Amino acid sequence: MKEYQTITEISGPLVFVETDEPIGYDEMVEIETPSGETRRGQVLEAASDHVAIQVFEGTDGIDRDSSVRFLGETLKMPVTEDLLGRVLDGSGQPIDGGPDIVPDERHDIIGAAINPTAREYPEEFIQTGVAAIDGMNTLVRGQKLPIFSASGLPHNELALQIARQATVPEETADEDEEESEFAVVFGAMGITAEEANEFMDDFERTGALERSVVFMNLADDPAVERTITPRLVLTTAEYLAFEKDYHVLVILTDMTNYCEALREIGAAREEVPGRRGYPGYMYTDLAELYERAGRIDGREGSVTQIPILTMPGDDETHPIPDLTGYITEGQIYIDRDLNSQNISPPINVLPSLSRLMDDGIGEGLTREDHADVSDQLYAAYAEGEDLRDLVNIVGREALSESDNKYLDFAERFENEFVDQGFTTDRDIDETLDIAWDLLSMLPKTELNRIGEDLIEEYYTDDEEQPVEATAD
Amino acid sequence: MSQATQEQAVSDDGVIESVSGPVVTATDLNARMNDVVYVGEEGLMGEVIEIEGNVTTIQVYEETSAVSPGETVTNTGEPLSVDLGPGMLDTIYDGVQRPLDVLESQMGAFLDRGVDAPGIDLEKTWEFSPTVEVGEEVGPGDIVGTVDETVSIEHKVLVPPDFEGGEVESIEAGAFTVEETVATLDSGEEVTMHQEWPVREARPTVEKQTPTTPLVSGQRILDGLFPLAKGGTAAIPGPFGSGKTVTQQSLAKFADADIVIYVGCGERGNEMTEVIDDFPELPDPQSGNPLMARTCLIANTSNMPVAARESCVYTGITIAEYYRDMGYDVALMADSTSRWAEAMREISSRLEEMPGEEGYPAYLAARLSAFYERAGYFENVNGTEGSISVIGAVSPPGGDFSEPVTQNTLRIVKTFWALDADLAERRHFPAINWDESYSLYRSQLDPWFEDEIADDWSDTRQWAIDTLDEESELQEIVQLVGKDALPEDQRLTLEVARYLREAWLQQNAFHDVDRYCPPEKTYQILTAIKSFNDEAFEALDAGVPVDEITSIDAVPRLNRIATTPDEEAAEFVADLTEDITNQLREKY
Questions:
Q1: Which of residues 156-215 of A touch B (CB under 8 A)?
Q2: Which residues contact B39 (CB under 8 A, 6 or more apart)?
Q3: pLDDT exceeding 70 applies to what percent of chain A?
Q4: Would you call A389 an interface residue with chain B, using a CB distance cutoff of 8 Å?
């Protein structure tokens, strides 16, 4: 081990050290402060006579005489199945008072990219029990589907609801292979202690903790640590999925804090900033996280990601949601207006999207009418939304009968389809039946997105009142 | 090019001085600009991008964790090149032309570092049939024989463009590997099926010609309103979720090119997997053979090394040029060129270059135009004609088309397909905005459409454009006063425009029939709507109220033409037109 006491500069989260032998890029470093504390860091830039180190736990208390040890290896995450049920801090140290972690293996936290030829295309439907997701923006195993939210909105409740309710419906009784188990790896970056409690209480109350691994970097923990937390989370998730056959749901909250930390490091390194001061490589950096979702040919498990981000100023063109949207396979929008109308979960389906939906639904997967119904709901709800603007100007009386139907449709869609509460678990049949109930308000000729045979089968005429009427 | 095919050139090794992400500097390296070097103990592939004094700057095509100063850098003395030869089709490469299936068999599901593999299989033998005889004179670029590369494509074996050429001394049919000599010339040169070509240099041609045939895409809005020529360039900018990739993939599947090169540049891994899974299953609409038989995929997903993202579009276009030289029509899809520009920006900022607009390097516009200029309809050096059509997706931040990559691209390309988030939100796909998009090839391609499809192709199209234009003007009024306040004839126009949008412009990429619409059918649907329009206006003149006209039950069947199988479409349209006419005439 190489040890130096040659710190030349300390600036924000960075420490510069003179060295007389080569140090590897990304190598791990330990710095011992005069008071005996040990701080961990990583080499950000390696030159032949000096290195720049990014210190995860903050640079306060480090002085020129602090000793710097280079560990000769890149950052590794100790992984084992025993991590399930454990709570760790943002750099992977246990904080639940439990025993030390005895690792089976130690994995590099910079995950290697999955070879596209080795990937298995995700097409297994995950039923979240949330109609606006299952019906309109279906989630599938191995997908990365972020929640685009903003301050003051109940994105955490939605994430918890999904973590609680997510199942894969058993389509075949003759289960020839052992059903893989389900696990949640939860990574908190810079969330407040209160939010953290909210998550932990829910995990404990529902017994979800024993099949979860929790990484907590709280708002008052060092910001730089946030840049490694999601990598530890995903390394753990990959291990559980691809070596231990778990179906892993990864929840990362809040990606905005992660990006702020990136910006902080970028600024400290005096890099040329990109948009809004975020580093130019943020797209690549985020992709290195999000692309670690997926399935691999011939392996049982899967990594499904639900990153949560809060859009500063509700602005979806802000670099964080923007770059995320370009990498992830869709997005779920939480909407402030719907929230103030007390619709829960307040998902605005119009800008929401699941790119992998088309292959995960349909006959044999969900139901034959799913794709057409969802298309029609979109078109009809968009039409109703448009008309709302007009109503504000001319009033309802000025509109045609057909326009009025669309307005009613939009109203009922929000109140009956989207609004289900955070505790209701709807299966996909129920979701689609509610959809048909709503679509049957419109004349058959308006249903131009749905095949004629499906209309025959599912459309309920006004005259013969449907038995199940409207859902509660 | 790869280490495996490279005879080690004699050159002075250098020593790594510093490492910062994908950028490594070395001292004492004797190298030229753009030489390929192997960095460090693991032999990571890199390219020289700057030389200053004794210090050489290298961009490394692989992850550089744990590489340390002091390790050696070996120069190959060669620029970044691709291996050209039979076996490139039906293959998926990374950004520096390493076959991904070979990499998977060597290192498993995750991409490791320092593994190298030649771009074409050097062991495999191909059945070579000569097309020239002993004693014939051949020059650079000339075809000396053929090889059945896939069921769809006959690979032409070319004299490399940098050969002198001469009289053929010996040539024989038989099975050869790509490295074995298939023909010897009296100049002493030996022709093999394997060539190398530097990716940053365009392969030579005689001249660029004006393209006059369309690249028929099977997409109604593209063929009908904004056609692209074989040899043309197009850009598809759009915010996320507006369907860039779906449009690109539809083009890759259905465009009537001979060869398709699909470059996934910094995009999603699962999307590439979808292409790998789908293409072998799907039939090529022209030949009926599997699509993969005419396709070469280049996948550099967003989490693969950033420097290789910079090179992958060049790898793609060089392979495209090679097939063009054989006389084929090649279509290259680059998804997305913004990621390529961002890779340039990232490398540039690591070099601490003075940034231009939004942090992009000042040479962004020059690089983009140099790339798009490699497209075109060409007369090749061997006398054949071939084309490269380039379709670049652009991902503007926040969907704002005023950003540098979109703007610099628009200055070069002649077809612009603007994707629109509003249309996508209401699930109007393809979400191509008909007001903003344009094609400058229209007039040059009209003769083809008029000869092949219908005499009044351009007039009918103009009618559709006028109707859609009128609709957008009327919509502004409707937003203020409501539809019912409009006069009857304007309400009818709105109704007709609605069918243009729903029955003609919209197309379902996931429907077995609708995903590919031959231009004949594109024209049939349009004429069906136009004849409804003409009949309806006559009825209106005869005093029939609009509500009655639009409520006749034959009209909504216009929406079903698209999903009617192609061979039945003509009859369906004829019946429908007759029904509409009869039902309308009953009203007066």
A1: none
A2: B16, B24, B26, B45, B46, B58, B60, B64, B67, B71, B73
A3: 95
A4: yes
